[in-house]
Each structure stands twice: as C-alpha cells, then as structure tokens.
Amino acid sequence: MEKILSKIPAFEPGSVWLVGAGPGDTGLLTLYAYEALRQADVLVYDALVGQDILELTGPDTILEYAGKRGGKPSPKQKDITERLITLAREGKKVLRLKGGDPYIFGRGGEEALMLAANNIPFRVIPGISSGVGGLAYAGIPLTHRETNSAVTFLTGHDANGEVPNVKWEHIAKGSPVIVIYMGLKHIKVITDRLVGFGRPKSEPVAVIFRATLADQQVVTSTLENAASDVEKSGLKPPALIVVGDTVNLRSELDWFSPFTNDAPET
C-alpha cells in the first residue's frame, strides 16, 4: 500500500484539491482522496460528508464546514470559493471535499473556474457518484443489456430550488432509465410530468435513502404511487430517485441489505 501511495502526486502548499468523497461508505473513497485527507492543512467539507471520513484527517488538520442543505441557512457559493482562494494564498494545502463526485451536481466546475481565474493551482479527484454507487448498493444496475443502453442523470431542483426547466418530454420519451439527484421535494411534480409525457403509470421507481450507509433504506413503487409511498415511509433526504425497468432487478440483486441491520424495506 505504501508503494502505491508514494506514487500519488504531492499535495503542494498553496494548492487546492477538489475531491469527491463518494456516496457515503468510507470504503468507497479513492486512494487519492485518502491521501489528501491525511495531508491536508485545511479541510473544507460539505454536508453529505460523514464523520467516519472526517476522522481520516491528520491530527493537525483544521476542519471547516461549508455544507448546503435545502431550506436551511447555508454558506453562499461565492463565499466558499473565496475562502478556498484565501486559504491557498496563505500557503495552506486546501482540501475541498464534496459528497459523490465534484463535477456531478457538485458545483465543482464553478469552484475550479474561480481557482483558475485566480491562478490557484488545483487538482480534481473524481469520486463515486451516488447515481452509480447508490444504485449498486440498492441492487439496481445502472445499465442492463436487456433493459437499457442509455441513462439520464438529472437534478431534481435548479439554482432557485424549483423544478428544473429541462425538456421533460424529451427525457420522458428518450431515456429508458432516469436517475434523479436531490429530487425528493419535487417528486410529485417530476413523476406527474414523466407520466404526462407518456411514461406508464406502472413503471417501477426506487427511492434510495442514505445510499451505501448501514441505515440505507429503499422504497420501491411506481410512477403513479411513488410520491404517496415516500410520504407514508416518513423517510427524509438525502435520497436518490431511479425510474426504469432496471428497478425490477432489485428483487434478485439486493446483496447489501443482508449485511445490515436495517428495518424491513417499505
């Protein structure tokens, strides 16, 4: 292991690493992410980064919370990016840690552009997105030869917290599997729009809560009933919504639940 870690580029003072922490399970961290946690002077982390991951930092690492949660007071993106620049200019090794992957609905591109504009050296370390890892832990293949050769990743809200202004008709008719991040607030509107543009009411839906963690729970339903079934479950975000026939494979491929002490699936 040390031989492998020795080949990882040095975390230079005055630089920023934009790192994906993965969907939650600590074991899904990349080696680059692990080494960055050990070396960072300052860790600026998001709301979805778990305590187990934070505990991998070095003894002298300073932790700064910069989490954003819908409907709650949150740091402004501009302030977060300016803080990264300030810390780097102070000569710190700055680790910007995000849940999932920095460039998949993580606003990593915005931060990288500002770092580049201010001549701050940076490196981007991809992470396993929940749209990939979360499905795998729920027993739902992202693609499957007999069901789909295309996937659409979609955010469930725009910059203002509203339903995104996308071409819903094209998504409904053009993608056999749809993976929706941060969509729980608008699940009723989203499912209604998909049905309105031709998706069958009976099409399977899975909503994955706290994906890859020991208390992960999955609500399986249909487009017609997903919103009411989620409400009945009482479960809260973070959650991932999956629409498509690959959801049906969960009944045979749910390998993760037997390893946990979860309550029975709703």
From TrEMBL:
Signal peptide: none
The encoding gene: cobA
Sorted UniProt keywords: Cobalamin biosynthesis, Methyltransferase, Porphyrin biosynthesis, S-adenosyl-L-methionine, Transferase
UniProt similarity note: Belongs to the precorrin methyltransferase family.
Enzyme Commission identifier(s): 2.1.1.107
Protein name: uroporphyrinogen-III C-methyltransferase
Enzyme class name: transferase
InterPro entries, sorted: 4pyrrol_Mease (IPR000878), 4pyrrol_Methylase_sf (IPR035996), 4pyrrole_Mease_sub1 (IPR014777), 4pyrrole_Mease_sub2 (IPR014776), CobA/CysG_C (IPR006366), Siro_Cobalamin_biosynth (IPR050161), Uropor_MeTrfase_CS (IPR003043)
GO MF assignments: uroporphyrin-III C-methyltransferase activity
Pathway per the UniProt entry: Porphyrin-containing compound metabolism; siroheme biosynthesis; precorrin-2 from uroporphyrinogen III: step 1/1; Cofactor biosynthesis; adenosylcobalamin biosynthesis; precorrin-2 from uroporphyrinogen III: step 1/1
Pfam families: TP_methylase (PF00590)
This protein's record includes keyword Transferase: yes
Domain of life: Bacteria
Gene Ontology BP, a term: siroheme biosynthetic process
Tetrapyrrole methylase domain ranges (all copies): 16-226
Organism: Sneathiella chungangensis
PROSITE patterns reported in the protein's UniProt record: SUMT_2
